[in-house]
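R.M. (postdoc): so does anyone remember the format we settled on? I'll just put the structure tokens first.
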């Protein structure tokens, strides 16, 4: 039971605890769930090491977004998923060879819905659904084959999409995606979320009505203040907050989880709304109701977050700046009952009172 939450209550007796932490100044949340990441210890060049980028940001569950397809998922699993402290889940790319450049990603012959669905069904607890991304030809093949694989495996799809003549965003949202399918990067530049008067396009409202989900997927090119701010001011909030973290997005736009959450906080979401979209909503979107909440009997994945007050600058994917007055910092992360990140040594004894180094390792 050391990896489970045993009790949630006020005034639990400290004597029953192995470790007592004073977190009165902070928010204690479920471990954060980032449903759009690029985490692979090997694989394509843009990938990052999961534990170094997830756990310091409070992320205990990260979903790799299509790095691998049915041909190479098992290699990804053995080199990364099986060796990470972070819980790594995956969207399986409809492209059999995975996210390895335009030659395979634009090749419709690589998109075998049945083979994709078979691999999803082989690992139903790790593979949360099907991903399509970067498809350049102006046809529906990639989206429709991903949805087909989603139907065959009873899983949602996550779609990275760029509108082109003959391939309209409105048709994606209203005709091609199913309720529960996810459009990621929706505050980006590739699709018209706003009309010419900066009002939310009617088809986006209609899509939300029919249950299509809108995910941030910040990334290096897909989160623009000029889209996000007017949309949020009109009440069009994301369903889920995710980073699309990779080697480029982590740099100038700083698309890590707590920074991405901080941007949305400063645009106007409440802390409750930010946390909800990074935990319980994310768990629902990937059909993992066991995650994303602090409940007795649940896995002990927790984040301890601080809201710092001051003057802070934030950068979007268009390299524009937004000045804000609050910043979320991850103080401590617990993964499966163990402290995995402790920025301030909160779980440790002060050195002056620590006694002899009998526990020195
Ligand atoms: Zn991505």
């Amino acid at each position: 039971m050391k990896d489970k939450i045993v009790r949630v209550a006020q005034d639990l007796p400290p004597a029953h605890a192995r470790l007592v932490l004073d977190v009165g100044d902070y928010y204690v949340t479920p471990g954060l769930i980032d449903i759009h990441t690029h985490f692979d210890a090997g694989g394509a060049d843009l990938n990052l090491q999961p534990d170094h980028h997830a756990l310091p940001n409070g992320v205990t569950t990260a979903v790799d977004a299509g790095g691998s397809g049915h041909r190479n998922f098992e290699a990804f699993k053995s080199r990364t998923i099986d060796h990470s402290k972070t819980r790594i889940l995956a969207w399986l790319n409809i492209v059999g060879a995975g996210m390895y450049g335009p030659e395979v990603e634009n090749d419709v012959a690589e998109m075998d819905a049945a083979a994709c669905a078979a691999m999803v069904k082989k690992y139903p607890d790790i593979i949360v659904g099907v991903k399509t991304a970067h498809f350049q030809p102006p046809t529906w093949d990639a989206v429709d084959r991903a949805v087909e694989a989603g139907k065959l495996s009873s899983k949602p799809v996550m779609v990275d999409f760029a509108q082109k003549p003959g391939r309209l965003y409105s048709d994606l949202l209203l005709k091609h995606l199913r309720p529960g399918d996810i459009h990621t990067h929706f505050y980006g530049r590739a699709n018209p979320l706003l009309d010419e008067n900066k009002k939310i396009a009617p088809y986006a409202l209609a899509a939300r009505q029919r249950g299509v989900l809108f995910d941030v997927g910040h990334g290096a090119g897909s989160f623009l203040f000029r889209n996000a701010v007017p949309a949020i001011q009109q009440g069009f909030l994301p369903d889920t907050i995710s980073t699309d973290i990779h080697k480029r997005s982590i740099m100038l736009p700083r698309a890590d989880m707590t920074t991405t959450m901080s941007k949305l906080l400063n645009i106007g979401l409440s802390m409750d709304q930010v946390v909800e979209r990074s935990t319980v909503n994310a768990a629902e979107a990937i059909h993992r109701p066991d995650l994303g909440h602090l409940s007795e009997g649940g896995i002990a994945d927790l984040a301890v977050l601080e809201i710092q007050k001051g003057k802070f600058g934030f950068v979007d994917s268009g390299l524009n700046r937004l000045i804000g007055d609050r910043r979320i910092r991850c103080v401590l992360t617990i993964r499966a009952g163990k402290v995995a990140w402790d920025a301030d040594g909160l779980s440790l004894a002060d050195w002056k009172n620590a006694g002899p180094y009998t526990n020195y390792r």
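R.M.: ...and that's the designed sequence above, right after the tokens. Also worth knowing: DSSP finds eleven helices and eleven strands in the chain. The mean pLDDT is 96.
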